[in-house]
Prior knowledge:
By secondary structure, the protein is α/β, with parallel strands linked by helices. The protein is built from 12 helices and 12 strands. The protein is 40% helix and 18% strand.
Amino acid sequence: MLPRLALVPGEPAGVGPELCVRLAQQPHASHRLVAFGDADTLQAAATALRLPLRLLDGHETATAPGDLPLHPLPNAVASIFGRPDPRNAAAVIAALDAAADACLRGEFDGLVTGPTHKATINAGGIAYTGTTERLAERAGRDVVMMLANDVVRVALATTHLPLREVADAITRDGIERALRIVHAAMRKDFGIAEPVIAVLGLNPHAGEAGHMGREEIDTIAPAIAALRDEGMRLEGPLPADTAFLPRKLEGFDAVLAMYHDQGLPVLKYSGFEQAVNLTLGLPYPRVAVDHGTALDLAGKGVADPSSLFAAVATCARFVATRRKLAAWT
């Protein structure tokens, strides 16, 4: 049975809808997609791109380029490319919640999401820090954000925090929890039996033996030691400025960075267009594009769909890996 993937376009005024239209032109041999969102917005995107789009009932199967099964969730007002409207915030969140709940019920095997616009959702009266956090809350799971491409996989010990709050958020329990989630995902989703995970320090030079901060000594190293005793293959705490050297990355299956801008600039520089955003720890695979809403490009037909294509391929691959592991056990 082909992997069944729920697809959420994201912010209707951004590039998400047109990327979904481009996705609908691709062959359907390796997965089944059902979009959750507004039909008029998708049709408007197809018109802007001058591409065919035939929206099907969500239970139908796509058979030709341009076919896209849809679970319709209409916007409150017509969307205008490049101009997000807070009145549509509820519809954006409703699409995300409906797709996530369908995955939790087992109706879909995985979730692929487009970019959302946090400011617009909050302006619409919905408290929203990000899709990762909302999916975690809905599933009742601890999760870890990871971004990945063909060069490197970077997980985050903390996500969307002001820099001045990061040090206080780094705890031994938090590091251990993040590493357990990353380790399990490397085995379950990536199919790596004994992953090697590099753990970065928080401070320059990984604290320089305590002269530039003690987080490595008091918090990060004890967490690493405890999990090594359980059999995990961990390296660190490592200085962040040299951990990403190509010869070092060859020995790592993943890197745990302490905060958002410690690890993600390196990943995005190494291959932004092909990178994807993963939520590790959910009961189902969730893969998102690694870019924002690109409001300035919306409706112009120039947005690069590579990240969405990669997200769908990655999600389908994760489903296949989980099925194989389940069959073996």
